[in-house]
Amino acid sequence: MKVLAKTYLIPVFLCLLNMGCEKVKDNEFSIPTAVPLTSNPDQLFKEPYRPQFHFTPQKKWMNDPNGMVFYKGVYHLFYQYYPEDIVWGPMHWGHATSNDLIHWQHKKIALFPDELGLIFSGSAVIDYNNTSGLGTKEDPPMVAIFTYHNMAFEKAGKINTQSQGLAYSLDEGETWKKYERNPIISNTNKKDFRDPKVFWNPETNIWNMVLVAGDHAEFYTSKNLINWTKESEFGKQFGAHGGVWECPDIFKLKVNGNGEEKWILIISINPGAPNGGSGTQYFVGNFDGKTFTSTQKEPKWIDFGTDNYAGVTYNDAPNNQRIFIGWMSNWLYARNTPTKNWRSAMTLPRTLELTKINGEYLLKNKPVAAFKKLQKPVFTSNKVQLKANQKTIFKYDAFNQSEIRFNTANKDLQLVFSNDVKDSLVLHYNSQSKTFSIDRRKSGKVAFEKNFGKDIHKSNVLALVTDKIDFQIILDWSSIELFLNDGLYSFTEQIFPQKPYTQLSILSTEDQELNDFTISSISSIWPKKIAKNE
C-alpha cells in the first residue's frame, strides 16, 4: 500500500524517519500504510459500501433522524425505521445512543405503529419541571412528540391522514408508553401536517413547537406538552417551494460568536433542492416565542450536495452547542442504492455556527470536534507545490476511509479520486465563476437509478471571498463530505465505487501551493466482529 506525493519541500530524511516514505521519483513519495479496506458480505458492518464511521442501522431501512436529545451525558438518536425490509415500509422509531456523537450503541426499537397510525418524524425533550405530569421533578419524563400517519385514512382518500401524538419514557428512553388520549393535536383538513419539533423556550418559559403543513410552517405554544395553541404561520411566500415542506427546526445562534443573535428556521423540501430531489433550506430571522419573521425571500441551503436531507438539531446539547445530523440520502434514489442487509446512513454530526459576510447571514456546518479522535495522519507536508497544468498524484489504498485537509490560494483547483477499474470522482473549484462542482457520473455504480449519475452537481460559492480557501474532504466507503472555509459551504454525496479509490490527482491552471497538507486514516467505529443476531 502506497501514498505517492509530488512535494518539493519535505526533506526526504524526515519522511523516511516519520512515516517510512520511499522516494519513487523526483516528485513522488511512497508512504506505506497498514490496513487495506476489505469488505465481507457475510460480516455485519463489513458489507460492501457499509460506512465505517457514519451511523447506520444494524439492518434494514432507515431514514430521517428523530427525537435528538442530550440527557445525563448521553446523546439519543431516534430515527425513522422499518425493521422488515431495506425499502421504506410502516415506520417505527429506531434508537441509538452515544457518549461522544461518534461511537454508537444500537438500542431496541422505541416506538411501534398502533391503531392511530405509523410513527412518522418528530422530536424529544426532557420535561425537567414535569409540566406534563407524566413523571416527577425528581424523575422527569423523556417526552417524544411525533406524527401519526393513518394508512386507513390514506387508502380511503382522506386528506387528514396525519396528526400529532405523544409518548413518554421514565427510564431514559429504554421503554416507552403512548399517551392514553392521543392524538394531542388533531387534524380535520390539512395535508402533509407533520414533523413537530418541540423545545423549551427559556425566554418565554413555555414550550414551543414548529411543524409543517404542506407549503408553510406553523408555530404552537403549550404549558404542559399536551395542550397546544396555534400562534402563527410562516413561509407561503418565502423560500423554495418545489415540493412539500418537511422536518422543521428552529433555534437561536450568536453571529460570529459575538453579541448579536438571530433565529434560524430549518425546512427540508422534497423535491426542489438546487441539484435535484431532496434538500434542506434555512431562513435567518427573529422569533418572539409565537411568530417567526424574516426579510429573507430566497432560500439558503445548509448543504449543496444531493445527500443531506431531513436534518435537525439536538435539544439540550452541552455548552449551548447546536449539533445537526442529516439523513445521508435523497428520495430520488434512496430506495435503490446498491446495498444489502441495510440501507441508508446519517451524516457526520455537525456543529452549526452563524456568520455574517458582506452583510449576509450564512449558516456554517462542520464535523463535531470529537471526530478528530478517529484520525491518524499518514502523510503530512507543510507545502505541496503545484505546477501549472501538471498533475500532482497521491496513491493510497484507503482513500475511502480517509480525510484530506489543506488550504490554498483562491485559484482554480481540480481533484480526481480514481481506481484501477476507471472509476473517477471529480471535484472542481472555478475561481472565476465562483462555482464548485462534484461529478460522480463515473464514480462507480451509478446505473441503479437514472438520476444518481445524470448530471454534474454545480453550486455557486459566492461567499468564498478570502484570499485562501480551506479544504476538508472526508471519504467513507460510500460517501464524501466536503467542507470549504470551516464549513461555510458543505457538499454531501453518496458514492459507490466498484473498488476503493486508490489515487488522488490534483491539478491547477496556475502555480500554487497546498499548505498544511494532511492525509489521515480514519478508524472504524464498529467492533471487529459483531454477531448477526445482536
List the helices and strands and how they pair.
Elements (H helix, E strand, L loop, with lengths): L11 H8 L2 E4 L2 E3 L29 E12 L2 E9 L9 E7 L6 E2 L11 E9 L15 E8 L1 H5 L6 E8 L7 E2 L14 E9 L4 E8 L3 E6 L6 E6 L9 E11 L6 E10 L8 E9 L4 E2 L6 E2 L7 E5 L9 E5 L14 E2 L6 E8 L2 E8 L7 E12 L5 E4 L6 E8 L3 E6 L5 E7 L4 E8 L14 E4 L7 E9 L2 E6 L4 E6 L8 E5 L4 E11 L12
Parallel strand pairs: 3-22
Antiparallel strand pairs: 1-2, 3-4, 4-5, 5-6, 7-8, 8-9, 9-10, 11-12, 12-13, 13-14, 15-16, 16-17, 17-18, 17-19, 20-21, 21-23, 23-24, 25-36, 26-35, 27-32, 27-36, 28-29, 28-35, 29-30, 30-31, 32-33, 33-34
Protein name: Glycoside hydrolase family 32 protein
Keywords: Glycosidase, Hydrolase
GO molecular function, one term: hydrolase activity
What do these coordinates show?
The structure is a single chain. This protein has two helices and 36 strands. It has helices at 12-19, 151-155; strands at residues 22-25, 28-30, 60-71, 74-82, 92-98, 105-106, 118-126, 142-149, 162-169, 177-178, 193-201, 206-213, 217-222, 229-234, 244-254, 261-270, 279-287, 292-293, 300-301, 309-313, 323-327, 342-343, 350-357, 360-367, 375-386, 392-395, 402-409, 413-418, 424-430, 435-442, 457-460, 468-476, 479-484, 489-494, 503-507, 512-522. Strand 29 and strand 30 form a beta hairpin. Residues 1-19 have low confidence and may be disordered. Residues 54-363 form the Glycosyl hydrolase family 32 N-terminal domain.
